[in-house]
Amino acid sequence: MKVRLSEKNLLLEVAKLAGFVIWYLLIALSWVLSPKETTPLREILLTRLIQTVAGYIIITIYYMIFNRFDKRELLSKRLFIVLLLPICCIVAFFWNFLSHVIGKIFGFETYDFFSLYFFISTLFYLLPTLAFTGAYYGISYWLNFNYQRDKAQLATNLANEAQLQMLRYQINPHFLFNALNTIRMMVEEDKDVARKMITELAGFFRYSLSRKDEIVTFKNEISAIKNYLEIQKIRFEEKLVISYDIDERLNSMKLPFFIVLPLVENAVKYGLQTSKIPLTIKISAKLNSDIEISVQNTGKLVPPKVSEEGTNTGTENIRKRLELCYAGNFSFLLSEKDSWVTAQILIKNPVKPHTEK
Predict the structure, then answer these.
(1) Per-residue confidence at 97, pLDDT binned at 50, 70, 90?
(2) pTM for the full model?
């Protein structure tokens, strides 16, 4: 977002400078070519330069004020249209006033401030003020339109990437082979366990296949997580210890699809590589002034890398999708302390997130 604002300010500044250069050349040339004009060329150019510099200062202040109003959404478009002409008249007045002040400093003869002719001459500055205002909001609208379009495209790409990661689960030969091989053994040893594992596997795949939106309820995400961990629990038995601490008030909370489950999958994969047995995984979700979701596992923090199996969704994907949904009102941290790895999502001032469309 900071890059976008910087780009916007730079483009507006270039447009403003170009506009004032053109305006200066036109008004200077029109004065020079006037058939009855006897004013020395140096004075003409200097006078018009003073008017241009004064305009640059006033319009810059004008842009700064309205940029703050835009950021804070203190001025609706409808109200701005109603106030457009009065505001531009005020800006033109100050432009004229500053031109006269600077002119007096340089010793040019000027008419009295606030005389009738002063107010009439203010109309001379009204047209360029309206033109600069139109250019400002035209450029702003164009940049915002492009930004929203790029943001929507990025959201679509990230959602598709997440869906592809889920599809990798469905066709991942290691995950499917291990699950099905365990089921095959359990059919002979314990049919009830085999039946339970098939149920969990079906529930897990149902979640990935039935997605109709990029935004789901926390309850559905947790259900898929439990399906996944039950499958792993049957496979690894006493090597895996799992605990949940979920605030039920969060069940209806909306969050991006497939945003917590990858953290759990990473906890299993990397935890088994770095933790003493048994691997302990703790999943918690708390609602206080903020929403805190954390996945903890014993072991060491391993820098995420994309593997051939596709089992790592990439924490950067998670971070970007959270940014799109919660627009800066979140934090996402990976840390290691006392042989515990913690992946934490903190959502500040929880409100319904924007949909990724």
Answers:
(1) confident
(2) 0.51
Tokens for 168, please give them.
């990798």
How many helices and strands (H and E) does the chain possess? 9, 7
The answer to whether the CB of 299 falls within 8 A of the CB of 275 is yes
How far apart CA 341 and CA 357 sit, in angstroms, is: 33
- The strand pairing partners of 332, in sequence order, are 345
Backbone φ/ψ region at 348: left (φ over 0), alpha (ψ -120 to 50), beta: beta
347 bridge partner residues: 291, 330
H or E element, residue 329: none
Beta bridge partners of 297: 281, 341
Q: What angle do CA 106, 109, 115 make, to 5 degrees?
A: 120
What single-letter DSSP state applies at residue 353?
Answer: P
pLDDT band, very low/low/confident/very high, at 37 (cuts 50, 70, 90): low
Residue 249 DSSP one-character state: G
What are the chain's domains? 2-149 (no CATH), 172-347 (3.30.565.10)
β-partners of residue 292 are 286, 346
Between CA 311 and CA 305 the distance in angstroms is: 10
Does the pLDDT value for residue 243 go beyond 90?
Answer: yes
Q: Note the pLDDT of residue 110.
A: 62
**Euclidean distance between CA atoms 143 and 5, whole angstroms:** 10
Residue 22 burial class via C-beta count within 10 angstroms: exposed 0-12, middle 13-18, buried 19 and up: exposed
